[in-house]
Amino acid sequence: MLKVLLIDPPRLNRITTNIPEIVDDPDGIGYYPPLGLLYIAGMAETVPGCEVKVIDATVDKLNYAQIEELMRRESPDVVGIQAMTHTLIDALETAKTAKRVNKNIHVCLGGPHISIYPEETLNFPEVDSVVMGEGEYIFADLLRAIIHGKDLSSVKGIMFKNNGKVISTGSRDLIENLDELPFPARHLTPINKYWSILSRFSPVTTIITSRGCPYKCIFCERPHLGKKFRFRSADNVVNELQAAVESGIKGFSFYDDTFTLNRNRVHDICDDVIKRKLNISWSIRARVDSVDEAMLKKLKSAGCSSIHFGVESGNPDILRVLKKDIGLDQIKSAFYWSRKLGIKTLGYFMLGNPTETRDQILETIAFAKKLNPDYIHVSLTTPFPGTQLYRMGFEKGVLKSDYWKEFACKPDKKFVPKLWEESFSEEELQKLLTHAYKSFYSQPRVILRQLLAVRSIKGLRRKFNMGIRLLFK
């Protein structure tokens, strides 16, 4: 029996992000399961001869001594580690821990960071192989090769080391039929530990019903999922919802970039949720130009309690620069309809965009307040690797070096992502970011709305602590 241990590493050495710490702190906003890793686990369980376990070191708040103890107890043959750019240091430290336990453990890393910097990651001595792209079938094939003693060069979609030499087996096509994938292996995680400040119910989980995005926003950092929009059938989606409900889950956060892109499918999913009488609360992410009042009514009737809209800017010129392809009237309508129907909204905004002036930033902050969403999430524009914005940074001289690649080769906890400092210094942008949060969340109507939404003493304590930290630090 091949013992496989999949690990979502702790966030003990996470690099800083360009949003206030409290907004990015799980203890303040909630914990979600590592969905990508659970998809890998679900597929790995279908491989004959595999015993699969998952460690979510974040929700279990494990340190490396505890992870090492777990590894010694489980004695895995293969350790798979999820790696994102901001958790790369912890992913590599987890890999080192595995090699310290047993140098013969095959350590494989996968995730968005790996898809962009596969060879740079493989150069670390503690890493034996990396998965490039969507990992479900690739990792399963890797396990089969290990079980049967096959040459790893037979596994399409990986890089591995053979006698110190890096070997790439080439890229693998994107998964066309998402209905073929097993559901995420949620039973391998502590389901009752996951919650969200945005959900009426707990425990909560994440779900994704489509992959890829046809839009061309210059800041998008998910190129590994491709531009082609691929979606699961409504029946397959609701089957997963029902299975999760039967395991005790009540709240769902849909992670699709644009859940509402296929309107007929949205209505079909809602109709089936209603037909099966699933008493759930769920949130989605959507573009403002992909919803109308009729769709929102249907979503509400099926239990959709909140929608996250990507607004980014309240200035038409900046929206054009970002290639958002949306207008202010569309934004206003989406928020108005949602508020009218009792659906909570969260608006995403970005400050410090290319060509943006101080007046335009203040215009965006004022626009956010006028929209009157329940929550806002504001970030400072950051050029991420693989994005059009990153390439623009070199063309305009805003970026002087390929600093993300430098970080990928020599990760350092002191590393700070560079902002788009075309017109402002980092200090100026940080002050504007703080102003945006404080001016929105200090509004009496926002404070009152949050208080009226509290349903428990624990919920009150969480919101109170978050508010104090947000407004006074």
Write structural notes for this entry.
Strand 14 (281-286), helix 10 (293-301) and strand 15 form a beta-alpha-beta unit. The longest helix has 16 residues, at 426-441. This protein is of the alpha/beta class and 473 residues long. Helix content is 40%, strand content 17%. The protein has a seven-stranded mixed β-sheet with strand order 3-1-4-5-6-7-8, sandwiched between helices. It has two domains: 2-168, Response regulator (Rossmann fold), CATH 3.40.50; 215-382, TIM Barrel. It contains 18 helices and 17 strands. The termini are far apart. It is globular, with a radius of gyration of 22 Å. Helix 3 (64-74) packs across helix 4, helix 8 (234-246) packs parallel to helix 9 (263-275) and helix 9 (263-275) runs parallel beside helix 10. The model has no long low-confidence stretch (mean pLDDT 93). The protein has helices at 26-29, 35-44, 64-74, 88-101, 112-116, 118-122, 136-148, 234-246, 263-275, 293-301, 316-321, 328-341, 358-371, 388-396, 403-409, 426-441, 444-452, 457-472, and strands at residues 2-8, 30-31, 50-56, 78-82, 106-110, 129-131, 158-162, 165-168, 195-196, 204-207, 210-211, 230-231, 251-254, 281-286, 304-312, 344-351, 375-380.
Q: Topology of this protein?
A:
Elements: E1 2-8, H1 26-29, E2 30-31, H2 35-44, E3 50-56, H3 64-74, E4 78-82, H4 88-101, E5 106-110, H5 112-116, H6 118-122, E6 129-131, H7 136-148, E7 158-162, E8 165-168, E9 195-196, E10 204-207, E11 210-211, E12 230-231, H8 234-246, E13 251-254, H9 263-275, E14 281-286, H10 293-301, E15 304-312, H11 316-321, H12 328-341, E16 344-351, H13 358-371, E17 375-380, H14 388-396, H15 403-409, H16 426-441, H17 444-452, H18 457-472
Parallel strand pairs: 1-3, 1-4, 4-5, 5-6, 10-13, 13-14, 14-15, 15-16, 16-17
Antiparallel strand pairs: 2-9, 6-7, 7-8, 11-12
Helix pairs in contact: 2-7, 3-4, 8-9, 9-10, 10-12, 13-16
